[in-house]
C-alpha cells in the first residue's frame, strides 16, 4: 500500500519541513490492485461554508459526487448505525461517509447536531486532550518515538491541553474507547491508497498485438510462412537449362520462406518498439515521482506527543500542525494559535483561511445578520497548507475517504482514443478492407485463369497443378500484405517517441505518449488562474509613495495601472509614473530607510528554506510576505538586522485584529524619541493621516543622499486627500489588496495626554495612537502574472487556440487577471460558476463559445465546461496545479499539470507535466503537437503512395503474367514496404518543430486525415510511379532489345530488366520522401533540409542499402548487378518525382476538392452540422411543464393512462424539482395560452444583464450581483452584446 500523497513533515525548528511524495504510476498504463465498495451516506446540501470561502466542491456541489463514494444523498440528522448505506460502524457512532460529508461540503450544522468536537470524540472513542489510548492502539502503541522537549509543541497549546486535561481526569467508558485497532481499521480504513499494479512488458506487448493492422499481419505471416516452407521443403526443386548450367540444369533458389520471415520480423519490430516505448515512459515517470515512504507526523497519543509514520495515522488521532506543513488527512480544528491555512491547492481559494475552534465558529454563525457570511472556519482539508500558527486537530477521515484520497480515486478511468488514433484506426480498417478486396479479386481472376488452363493444357502433372494453385494463393496473400501499411503504427510510435524526447528537453514531460499529437488539434485551453497564469505568490505590483510617485510592476506592460495620463488626471498633474524596478531612483536616503523599517519591523513573517525547492522563501500571511519580498527585491535591507535592532527597543505591540484591520509596533529610536509604525487597510488608515511624505521625479530630485536629512513631509489638503482616495479606489477596481504604511513620532512614552490603557502600564490604546499619522505609501498587492504569460496567450490566439480561465477565485480578481494577460477580449463573456451550472443546455450552447472567464467555479463546473466543449467538437486542453483541478484534467483531451507547484493529484490526472510551471510551455506543446501530426501526415502521404502503386502494379502484372508472378517480387515489396517505410518514418519524423507551425489554425477534430494537397500529391505520384513501372516492365524488352533465344541469357536479361524496374521504383520512393517534407502548396521542399541531419543520414543509408541489395542481394531479392546505363536510367526516373511534385502543386485545390466531394471521397467542409430543434428553443420552466402535462392528457383514452408508472414518476419528479404543483399548472393554462397566442410570443433563450455598461471600472457592484459581464469593447451589433450586453444599461 502506498502512503497518501501530499504530505509534509516538520523535521526541525522554525517551521522548516520536508515535503515528500510517494511514487506514482501512470494512469494510462496501470490498474488498481483491489477495489473499494461504493458507499452511500448523508450528503446534506451545502448550507454555507463555515469560513465564508468556497469549500471543496464549492457552491453546493460536492467532490464526493464524482468519487468512488458517490451515492444517494440523505437528510438524516442522527448518525445511526446504518446511515447512508455504510456498514454498521459499531462500536463507533459515525459511519465513515458521514464523517467525510462534514468536509465536503463543509457542514457546521451537522457537526453541531452531533455535539461538536466533543461529540465526535465520544463517538470515535478518543480524548480531545490525550488522544487515543494505549489499549485502542494495539500494536501501534509500540510504534513512534516520543518527541524530545525541544521538539514538542508550542507552550500555548500545551497549557491549553493541560488545562482541559485537568477538567476531564475521569476514565472514559464505552466500547468505542476500548475498540481494537483492527476494528478501527476495518471501519475507517488506513491512511493509504490502493497500490496500482503497473502493466508488465509482456502485457504491453500483448495489447500492442491487438492492433487491427498487426492482427492482419499476423494472419498473413502464418499463411505466408506455411506456404513458403511447403514450397521450399515439400516440393522438388525447380531447375532450368541454359549456358553455363550443369547437365541436370540450374536449380532455382529456394527462398520462398523469406517472405513469411520478413513479415514476422516486421511484427516484432512494431510490437517491441511500441511496447518498450510505453514501458520506458512509465518507468521514467515513476522514477521522476518516486519519493521515500518514510514520512512522519506529530500526534498526541495517550497524553504524549509522538512522531509516527504517516501511514499509521488513525481516525480519532489528535494531530499537530506547524507552518509549512501540508495537512495529510481531514479533521476538525481543536485548539491552536493564529492558524491560517492556504486551501488553494485543494479548493482553488486563494485567500488564507483562519482556523478557529468550533465553539467560536458556531457562536459567529448564530449571531449572523441577514446577508452576512461566516468568516470563521474549523475544518481542516487534506491537501491544504499551514501558512502560520500552530495547533491541533481531530482526524475524521484518512486514506481513500479523505478529501485528497477521494479525488485521487476519482481520477481512474479508461482514456479515449485521440483524434489521430481514431482516424488512423478508421484508415487501417478501410485499407484492410480494400486490400482484402484487391486480394480477393486477384485470387478470383487468377483462379478463373487457372481453370481455363486446366482445359487448354491437360498435360500438366498433379504436382504442377498444386504448385500453380499455391502460387496463386501466395500472390493473393502478398497483395493483402502489400496493401496493409505495416509501417504506419511504427511510424506513429517513432514520431511520438522522437517528439517526446525533444519535448523533455523543453521542460515538457509527456506522461501519455499520444497526448502530444492531440495538442496539434487543440483549439481551446481551459486554464486555472492560481499557480498557472499567476505565480501563486502574493506580490506588490503597484502603489504610491506619498502622493505623487505611482509605481507599477513592469510599467511598459501595465501603463494603465499608473493612472497618471494627462487626460484623466487634470487635477493631479504633478503625479508621475515609475517602474517598480526603478523605484530606488526616486526613494532615497532617510525615506528609503523609513519605508523599509516600517515593513521589516512591523511584521511577523519570516524567511525559511522551502522543502520543495531548497531555496529561501517567506513564511507567514500572504500580505506580510508580499511586503517583505517587496523590500528584499529592491535591496533595501534585510528584515533580520532590523528586527534585531528593534527587539530590545520595542515598548508596545498592537497585533492585527479584524476589527481595526491594522497592526502596529512602537519602538524607541536612537535619538531617544519613539516611533509608531502601523500598516493596515488603506481606506481606514488614510483617513487617520494628516500628513504625507513628499516624493519627486528623478529629474526634479533634490539631494536626498545625506543621512542627516529628515524625511520631507507635507500636510494633506483637499486636493491631495482626493488624490489618495481616488488612487485607493482605482486599485480596488483592479482587485488589488491595498495596504497603507504609516508612522507617527512621539518625544516620550507614554506620550503626554495619552493615558495608558492596555495590558501594561506603558500600553496606550489603539484609538489614542491611531491619529495624526503620516502616510508613507499605499501598496497594491495581488498574485501577479507569470513572466511571459501575456505573450503566450497572444501566441495561442494567433495559432487559433482560445484560452479560457476557470478559477475558484472571486469574479473581480478573475476579471483583473484575465484582462492583464489578454484572455478577456472584445466579444468575450465573464460568468460565475453558480450561474453557469444552472443554465439550460441551449443557453450553454450559446454561452460556452463566448465564455472567456468562469469565476467561483467548482471542480464540477470545470468538468461541465470541458464536457460541453468536447460535445461541441472542440479538442480541449486543461491546465492546473491544484487538487481541485484533477477531475477536469482527467476529462480533457489533454491535461497539463505543474511539475514544481503541482499537487500529486494534478500530476496523476494530467497527460503532460510542465516541469518549469510555465504557462508559456503550452505554446511549445502545441507547436510540437503540430510537428507530430505533420510528421504522421508526411509519412502517410509517402506510405499510401507506395502501397497504392505496389497493389496496382502487383495486380496488373500478376494477371497478365503467364506464370502468375508480378513485376515486384514479394521480398522486394517487403523491403520497400517495411524497411523503406521504417527509414522513411524515422526521416520524416525528425523534422524539428518551428514557430511557423503556429501561423495556421488548428485542424478540426473531425477534419479528414488526408487534405486536398495530400490527396493531389498521392494521386499524382501514384500515377507517375505506376506508369514508369508498367512501361518498363512490358516495353523494356523492346526498348533495350532483350530478345535472346538462349534461356540462360534470356533469364539474365529478364533479371536485369526486373532489377532496373525495382531500382527505379525504389529511387522514386527515396526522392518522393524529400518531396513529402511539405504538406502544402509551397515549392521549397528543401526548407530546413540541411538542419535535419537525421533525414540526410537516413536517406544516405537508404541509398547505400539499395546499392548493396543490387550488388549482393542475388537470389533472395531476385536481382542482378546493373551496368552504368541502367543505374543512370533508374536514378533519373527517381529524381523525376521532384519536378512531378512541383507540377502537382501548381494544380488549384478548388476543382480537386469539388471532385473529391462529388465522388464522396471527402465531406463538404462548408456543410454546417444540423442542430436538434429542441436545443434551439428555451421555454419557461412552467410552460415546459404545461406542455408536458397537455401531452399527457392527450394520451388518455377510455379513462386509462397510456403510459407506465415510470413515466408518471418521472413527470412527478420534474414537477417537484421545479416547485410547480398540478393545481397551479391547470390554473395557468388559460392565461398562458391566451397571452402567448395573442402576443405572438415565441421561445427565447434566457438573457442576462450587463452591469459593466461602457466602463469596467464602474461595473464592480453589478458584476458581483449578476455574475455575468460582456466585454465593453464588444461591437453593439454583435450577437453577444444584443443578447446580454445592453440589458443593464
Automatic annotation (TrEMBL):
Q: What does this protein do?
A: Catalyzes the hydrolysis of ATP coupled with the transport of calcium.
SMART domains annotated for this entry?
Cation_ATPase_N (SM00831)
- State the InterPro entries in the record: ATPase_P-typ_cation-transptr_C, ATPase_P-typ_cation-transptr_N, ATPase_P-typ_cyto_dom_N, ATPase_P-typ_P_site, ATPase_P-typ_TM_dom_sf, ATPase_P-typ_transduc_dom_A_sf, ATPase_P-type_domA, HAD-like_sf
Q: What is its main location?
A: membrane
Cation-transporting P-type ATPase N-terminal domain residues are 110-229
Q: Where is the segment annotated Disordered?
A: 1-90, 140-176
Official protein name in the record: Calcium-transporting ATPase
